[in-house]
Every structure is written in structure tokens, then in C-alpha cells.
Design a protein that fits this description.
Layout (H helix, E strand, L loop, with lengths): L2 H10 L11 H5 L10 H6 L1 H13 L6 E5 L6 E3 L7 E9 L2 E2 L2 E4 L2 E4 L8 E7 L22 H16 L4 H17 L21
Antiparallel strand pairs: 1-7, 2-6, 3-4, 3-7, 5-6
Helix pairs in contact: 1-5, 4-5, 5-6
């Protein structure tokens, strides 16, 4: 689902217009920016939308990303050079085996490594905070691992948040329903699983 469609449907599901004029094209060209019935929803939609995406990320419902990179001769990997911003590193592997690591700031330090071989870093993306400026580029939410089904759950969450000043009890119902949808999504499982244990210390006999 495109970002514009997600934003449009999130607003449309709060107030139902009888004249059918609130179509996506009219919304995107700003025809309703000063509409007395819709202006509050239009100007506040991105806050709960970003909150819903963050919630899905925190619940590990958004697929992880992978980056291939050679560590330095000291076993360092600089996360700031990755294609996507890193929220949390889930695992690192080299030669098909998981390796221990520590993260300090934007740098990973590998415990067991080969500086001549690419390491695979599995991580969750720190998804950007969307705003109206992003409607111009209008990305497909699938680019962030957010499926159409997830978008429908986000719409339910946003609807609840936007209804809070108008109908608190109804708003709580929608938010609770959205949370149950979020929880029902299968959590993402890490692909990087340690299968080999290296001896770090050995006690002599």
C-alpha cells in the first residue's frame, strides 16, 4: 500500500462524508486542508500512524534486514554506513556461523571474525518518522516490510487515536482491536542462530 493510500484511508475511516467528495485525489491536492470537519484529522494523522509503525517494530512484527560487509582488521563494523538506519542488531554471522558481538554507539565489535570475509549483519530498521513531505515521494510501505494487512491494522489504530477527542469509548474499542491485530501477527524469527560454541578459556589438567 502506498503511503498516500494509508494516510487517506486512515482519515476517511474517521468521518464518513455523504457527498462522496472526499476522494484520494482531492485529499492529496489539499482541497480539504481547511475543511471544518476534517482539518483536525488531516493535521493529526501522522502522529498515530508513526506510533502504530513503531509499535509493530517494537513487537518484532516487521521483517529484519540484512547487510553484507567486511569487518576491519580489528573486527569492527560501522553501522552508520549501512543502507538503512539500524535500530537494533539481531545477530551477526560469518562463514555460516553466528558470532558474538558488542555494540558501542554506531560500531559493532566482533569477538570471532575474519577480516577477509564478509559478515552478514541481521538488524531491525529504525524506520523513519513519516510526515506530509513524504507524500511527494509516496513510497510503497512494502519497502519497509509493512504488508497491506499490516496497513489495515494501522488504519484501525489511527482511527482509534483520531476519535479520542470525539468519542473516547469508541476510540478505545478501535485501539484495543488494533492491538489484538498487532499481537496476532507472527513475530519475526531471527535467521542468525548460534550453532557453534568456541572455547574462550580452557582449564589445564
Amino acid at each position: 500500500m502506498l503511503l498516500s493510500k494509508l494516510v487517506y484511508l486512515s482519515i476517511k475511516n474517521v468521518l464518513y462524508q455523504n457527498d462522496g467528495s472526499f476522494v484520494e485525489e482531492n485529499f492529496l491536492n489539499g482541497s480539504f486542508d481547511n475543511d471544518i470537519d476534517l482539518s483536525m484529522q488531516i493535521h493529526n494523522v501522522f502522529s498515530p500512524l508513526n506510533e502504530a509503525i513503531a509499535r509493530l517494530s517494537d513487537l518484532n512484527r516487521i521483517p529484519y534486514r540484512f547487510e553484507r560487509i567486511k569487518p576491519s582488521i580489528y573486527g569492527e563494523i560501522e553501522l552508520s554506513n549501512f543502507v538503512h538506519p539500524v535500530k537494533e542488531v539481531m545477530g551477526v554471522s560469518q562463514g555460516g556461523h553466528a558470532t558474538a558481538f558488542k555494540k558501542l554507539g554506531s560500531t559493532l565489535y566482533l569477538e570471532w571474525f575474519n577480516s577477509d570475509e564478509e559478515a552478514v549483519v541481521e538488524y531491525s530498521e529504525d524506520i523513519k518518522t513519516f510526515s506530509y513531505e513524504d507524500l511527494e515521494e509516496n513510497e510503497d510501505m512494502k519497502n519497509y516490510g509493512i504488508s497491506d494487512a499490516m496497513c489495515n491494522y494501522i488504519i484501525e489504530f489511527v482511527k482509534g487515536k483520531l476519535l479520542e477527542p470525539i468519542a473516547p469509548e469508541l476510540a478505545n474499542l478501535h485501539i484495543t482491536t488494533a492491538e489484538s491485530y498487532f499481537q496476532a501477527i507472527n513475530p519475526v524469527k531471527k535467521a542468525t542462530i548460534q550453532s557453534v560454541v568456541h572455547k574462550k578459556f580452557e582449564i589445564g589438567m
